[in-house]
Amino acid sequence: MKKIYLLLCLLLGSCTQMPAGIEPVQDFNLNRYLGKWYEIARLDHSFERGLTQVTADYSLREDGTVKVVNSGYSEAKKEWKSVEGKARFVRTAEEGYLKVSFFGPFYGAYVVFELDHKEYSYSLVCGPDRDYFWLLARQPVLPEALQSMLVAKAKALGFATEKLIFVAHDTVNQP
Q: What is the pTM of this model?
């Protein structure tokens, strides 16, 4: 059923919506958000299943859109995998509400709903519904108290945090 929903979203272009009760951060600064982020935790989905050492790199394209490169290591295949996409703001550049595409003209929501505005050292991100959730950080490990606080915030907003996958990182072997 979930695959049918995703297919319909892609075909109808409605996957740029936000989950009810989730608000994107305001005073978002794209230039500060650019760069490398480590995936600390995520909810499971097929396009990242089995990957460790997952990172996302964001950079500005000449046309003003954002280049997105997601990479991870497949332990099963003993190889690095990466995919490149592009993102653009849905409403304004001051709001952490973007849409991202890895497959041609089809976009999905990328909603930054929690952000360390001071240092841009962590963020909580979701997709069009609560089945898509990521905890990202500038370092491969977060202090335990901060990580627990962020997971608790996600849980309070209705994300299935008991199903989180905490991502292992070995920065020595990053490509």
A: 0.89
